[in-house]
Amino acid sequence: MDLVINRFTVAILVVGCLVAWFLQLIALSPISPNPLILKHSYTREGPYAKNNVLQAVEKLGEGMLDRPEDTAVDSQGLIYTATRDGWIKRMHSNGSWEDWKMVGGAPLGLTVSTSGDVLVCMPNQGLLKVNDDRIFLLASEIDGVPIRFANTVVEASDGSVYFSDSSTKYGKFFLDLLEAKPYGRLLKYDPITKKTTVLLDGLGFANGVALSSKEDYIIICETWKFRCLKHWIKGEKLGSTEIFIENLPGGPDNINIAADGRSYWIALVGRIRSRTLEFVYRYGILKHIFATYPNLLEWIGFQKRQAMVVKVGEHGQPITSLDDSNGKVMSLVTSAMEVGDYLYLGSLHANFLGRLSADKFRV
Ligand SMILES: *[C@@H]1O[C@H](CO)[C@@H](O)[C@H](O)[C@H]1NC(C)=O
């Protein structure tokens, strides 16, 4: 009899503790998640086959560049990057680096405008215009609502500026991913009216932005939807949006038009797809746990060391990829920009910019 009561008491206690823990977890959790169900699996075959080509990069500015996320090039051939310690730095043709402008914060994407100004995306601030003389905040809000997570920017030849706002809710990627509600937007800044408008919203972490060479469409990447969209800004399809590429083997970050003017380089940031991770993405309770204790994410292989960039044709067909499958030399590669005979690789892990020569990637 005693034994039965004891077991019963223990069971009640255990269940009680679990319920209390669960309620506390929900109360502590910063997110209110939706399930993220990824339909297709992908294989590392054909264009996605492992090759470790990125292990052959030359390291530019090693030790001087704090996680250079994106790159840009000006009409003189100077290579610009924004570092996470608040600098815009640039590399001269003789290979020397210059600490060009301190903008503060943690700048991300940048581009050089036709007027020679550097446009820089600043999380928590908006869009900056930087030149030798001054730093100017071009856009910080839309109808009074702040732009929370400016991430990547391109400029069209008419001066219109297209940029992404990754999430109107979160300043941290992993929280946006775990919540899996699409808070990302594609924005347009008009240099004449000086107004910013929303072209697209409801994007799953809006990230890389590229403009076609005819400037008739924009490609915008959605990191945790593992796809990029094509949004028409000219012609018959003006205003419509279609899928450009989906089921990418990693979350797309920056996208840049390739030197041929037709294909695109997409950097897939870290490893955020795997069987384990995709299992976690499905279940709210697991997502609450990882959102509350983010250190556990590393433990299940989130952002594991590895790097991958994919070259995609104008119809969204994957052509080839370059990777460092165990992150020996490069990991968390966030951008790939082809200039002349080189591919420049930005990374949120490195203290250098990677540079790969054409003989390694043009086959
Ligand atoms: C490289 O070029 C820059 C700009 O022209 C110049 O300021 C710098 O002194 C040069 N550095 C070297 C090592 O030649």
From TrEMBL:
**Family, similarity comment:** Belongs to the strictosidine synthase family.
This one is known as Strictosidine synthase conserved region domain-containing protein
InterPro entries reported in the protein's UniProt record:
6-blade_b-propeller_TolB-like, Strictosidine_synth_cons-reg
In terms of Gene3D superfamilies, this protein maps to:
TolB, C-terminal domain
Taxonomically, the superkingdom here is: Eukaryota
Annotated GO CC locations: endomembrane system; vacuole
Question: Which parts of the sequence belong to the Strictosidine synthase conserved region domain?
Answer: 154-236
Q: Which UniProt keywords apply?
A: Glycoprotein, Vacuole
